[in-house]
């Protein structure tokens, strides 16, 4: 396939570290074999996350100079509100410091103890907020999503039969909302079809259950709909995005992804009563309803980023970079999640290291070994990220044990991705030598951020 060139010019450069293997051995030991605990100055190409790592445009930086830092009624908030209404279609917006601030407010407002929140695969912080407020997460994604090698155009789709079965089992009154991620991160950045979104909304409407989107990577989802659903081939990204959002009652947004900014997020809804209650909670946790946890300059950058994000050439190149890296690895026989998603390439750690049992943390050690091999920082998305069952204390054991190579927006070139591929392929050639890890420190919540490990003998 043809990989489109970068639709931007490089105006400012930032050097990154060039280290030796011996140095990296010391660094990863000091970090407890957890790539989250490495210092930025110790990392070369950084594929830890695409959250807040975007390179902002000159237009966004210009907007930063127009920040209205009024404590209430900032003109930047009014601009952001207008832009969100235009492209997402929701009536009300509550700014937050980032996506998990929106998750906190939504969960606090809508969940009661003993509720069930169905979703198309869990996400770490989302489920943590839901459980913190007394709910149980129920996975309703299609089964194909749990098979890394199954090539399905919309592996993020909700299984309507699973959703209906849950409604029949617990009752609609015990389901405060259905959480639909567009795209699904832990399935490999997989999209949801417009047809499926339409059907989920129809089913939920019959039972008077709200639908709330995790809209973090919604523009990527819109691109896949344009590419893979015939009815939308000639539609603009903006029009597809607007229709997608029409099948939700609200959304949480981490602006650090598809809004192309380094900090910020928001909660949206159409229900006025819910909005009024949200403005009370945001004052407690974040700030005034017209800024939440954001500065005026950040809201202006976000408003401009939303407009830039729906440009077809931008999102086409964004997805093409992921495919480029995925194709390089596939050609070398490296097992990855198929098809390649919109924000990352996911290594299948179970297939990469079949000699390691899941309790030996194959994805965690693979991420550490990739850093040791090449200086490339990635992250674990497997048993460590899944955490423990609150009742039994046992590890959650997801079917997918993955390492995420996350590509920041507008930051790296295809030449950088060549270096990443070279490092992964080199590691793959000596994969039989890699041993597992044991966990020596485990925090109570979201352990993947700060847990520490040691190599098994």
UniProtKB/TrEMBL annotation:
Protein name: Tyrosine phenol-lyase
Top-level enzyme category: lyase
Gene this protein is translated from: tpl
Similarity section: Belongs to the beta-eliminating lyase family.
EC number: 4.1.99.2
InterPro entries the record matches: ArAA_b-elim_lyase/Thr_aldolase, Beta-eliminating_lyase, PyrdxlP-dep_Trfase, PyrdxlP-dep_Trfase_major, PyrdxlP-dep_Trfase_small, Tryptophanase_CS, Tyr_phenol_ly
Signal peptide start and end residues: none
Domain of life of the native organism: Bacteria
Reactions performed catalytically: L-tyrosine + H2O = phenol + pyruvate + NH4(+)
GO annotation, biological process: tyrosine metabolic process
Aromatic amino acid beta-eliminating lyase/threonine aldolase domain ranges (all copies): 46-422
Entry keyword set: Lyase, Pyridoxal phosphate
Entry cofactors: pyridoxal 5'-phosphate
UniProt modified residues of type N6-(pyridoxal phosphate)lysine: 257
Subunit text: Homotetramer.
HAMAP family: Tyr_phenol_lyase
GO molecular function: tyrosine phenol-lyase activity
């Amino acid at each position: 396939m043809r990989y489109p060139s970068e639709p931007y010019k490089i105006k400012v450069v930032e050097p990154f570290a060039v280290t030796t293997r011996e140095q990296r051995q010391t660094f990863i030991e000091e970090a407890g074999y957890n790539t989250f605990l490495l210092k930025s100055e110790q990392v070369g190409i950084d594929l830890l996350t695409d959250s807040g790592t975007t390179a902002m445009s000159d237009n966004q930086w210009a907007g930063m100079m127009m920040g209205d830092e009024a404590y209430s009624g900032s003109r930047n908030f009014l601009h952001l509100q207008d832009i969100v209404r235009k492209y997402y279609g929701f009536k009300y917006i509550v700014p937050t410091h980032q996506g998990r601030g929106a998750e906190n407010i939504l969960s606090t407002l809508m969940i009661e103890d003993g509720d069930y929140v169905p979703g198309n695969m869990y996400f770490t912080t989302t489920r943590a907020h839901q459980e913190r407020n007394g709910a149980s997460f129920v996975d309703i994604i299609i089964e194909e999503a749990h098979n890394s090698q199954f090539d399905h155009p919309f592996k993020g789709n909700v299984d309507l039969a699973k959703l209906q079965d849950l409604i029949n089992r617990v009752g609609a009154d015990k389901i405060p909302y259905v959480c639909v991620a567009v795209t699904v991160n832990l399935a490999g950045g997989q999209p949801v079809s417009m047809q499926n979104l339409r059907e989920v909304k129809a089913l939920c409407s019959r039972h008077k259950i709200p639908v709330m989107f995790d809209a973090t990577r919604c523009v990527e989802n819109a691109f896949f709909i344009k590419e893979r659903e015939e009815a939308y081939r000639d539609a603009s990204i903006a029009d597809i995005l607007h229709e997608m959002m029409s099948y939700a009652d609200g959304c949480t947004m981490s602006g650090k992804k598809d809004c192309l900014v380094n900090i910020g997020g928001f909660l949206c809804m159409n229900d006025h009563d819910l909005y009024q209650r949200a403005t009370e909670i945001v004052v407690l946790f974040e700030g005034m309803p017209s800024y939440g946890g954001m500065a005026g300059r950040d809201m202006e950058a976000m408003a401009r980023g939303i407009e830039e994000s729906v440009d077809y050439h931008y999102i086409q190149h964004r997805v093409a970079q992921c495919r480029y890296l995925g194709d390089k690895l596939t050609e070398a026989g490296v097992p990855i999640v198929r098809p390649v998603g919109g924000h990352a390439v996911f290594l299948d750690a179970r297939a990469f290291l079949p000699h390691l049992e899941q309790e030996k943390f194959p994805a965690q050690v693979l991420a550490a070994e990739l850093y040791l091999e090449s200086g490339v920082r990635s992250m674990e998305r497997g048993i460590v990220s899944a955490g423990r069952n609150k009742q039994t204390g046992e590890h959650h054991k997801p079917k997918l044990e993955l390492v995420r190579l996350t590509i920041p927006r507008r930051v790296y070139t295809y030449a950088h991705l060549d270096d990443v591929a070279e490092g992964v392929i080199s590691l793959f050639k000596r994969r039989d030598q890699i041993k597992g890890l044991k966990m020596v420190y485990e925090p109570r919540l979201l352990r993947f951020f700060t847990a520490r490990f040691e190599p098994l003998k």
